[in-house]
Amino acid sequence: MAVDDSACDYSLLTKFLSHVAFKPFPYPTAPIPMPDTSNHVAFGKYLVSNSGCFACHSADFTKLDELHPERSEGFMGGGNTLIDINGEAVFTPNLTPDVETGIGKWTESQFITAVKEGFRSDGTLVRAPMPLWRDFTDQEAAAIYAYLRTVPVIRKPWIKTRAPHTYSSEGERLFKQYGCNSCHGNAGRGYVTFDAVDAKFPNDSLLEIKIRNPFAFEPESRMPLWQGMIREQDYQPLIAHIRTLSKQH
Questions:
Q1: CA distance 90 to 80
Q2: In terms of DSSP H, where are the helices of the chain?
Q3: Residue 82 pairs with which residues in a beta bridge?
Q4: Where are the beta strands (DSSP E) in the chain?
């Protein structure tokens, strides 16, 4: 069967965009060495640049400098706009060492917990689309923290985006207060849906165990470890709301 090669040609617009509007980066002219991992600041800079942290946590996607990340507008000062699973705006937080609006008061341990386990220094959940970076070792997360302590301070308060809301139940209020809707969606149809909750967890005790320690069911779970983070009296209304959402699917 003959193949029409012309069908595989790029359009004029595509050629223009790839050669003029979005030019490819130049190839390195020399090997790029891995930084000395014992130098936490240099290693942290390498990770921030190559893991793309600066892309979200700087001021604007359209004003990034991919070749020299630290030259990006508002480098690591946050304020960039992302959209979560519910279609709501999420503004990235300030990760510069400003003591009032950044992470200047955070300890290394608090930073590692936020990056790997998803909980900020005040115990609130880091909102999606920020993923949990559990693949980072403690050494790598600590190196990022060490580097962030050296970047220029930017004073930019975190913009709260959650509007006042009237809740249908105490369970719905808790579901959104704890940030469950950030990944599961307001209706339980997010990154992970509640379609099979009743079949997988026929009684509330099993579902509570799943919430407290998701690794008891899925060793590779990306869900935060909620043990000790959710108040004991909140489990029952929270579970009731989850079951309500599962029945609506």
A1: 8
A2: 12-16, 40-50, 53-57, 108-117, 138-148, 170-177, 180-184, 197-200, 204-212, 235-247
A3: 90
A4: 81-83, 89-91
Tracing tokens 């223009």 back to the chain, one arrives at: 16
Q: Quick check: 119 and 182 in contact, CB under 8 A?
A: no
Other beta carbons within 10 angstroms of residue 129's beta carbon come to 14
Closest CA to 127 of 69, 76, 71, 83: 83
DSSP-assigned letter for residue 72: S
- 101-112 pLDDT, tens digit each: 999 999 999 999
The domain at 170-247 falls in which architecture? Orthogonal Bundle (1.10)
- Confidence at 19, pLDDT banded by 50, 70, 90: low
Q: Which CATH class is domain 40-148?
A: mainly alpha
DSSP 83: E
- Domain assignments of the chain as residue spans, ordered by start: 40-148, 170-247
pLDDT tens profile 47-82? 999 999 999 999 999 999 988 999 999 999 999 999
CB atoms within 10 A of CB 245: 23
What's the pLDDT score for residue 191? 86
Q: Please name the residues in contact with 6: beta carbons below 8 A apart, sequence gap of 6 or more.
A: none
Q: CB pairs under 8 A, 24+ apart, for 62-71?
A: 66/25, 67/25, 70/45, 70/151
Note the pTM of the prediction, 2 decimals.
Answer: 0.79
Q: How far apart are CA 17 and CA 12, in angstroms?
A: 9
Cα–Cα distances (Å) from 246 to 189, 194, 222, 232, in that order, read: 9, 5, 20, 22
Residue at token pair 């893991």:
51
63 by DSSP, 3-state: which? helix
54 closest CA partner among 38, 29, 33, 71: 71
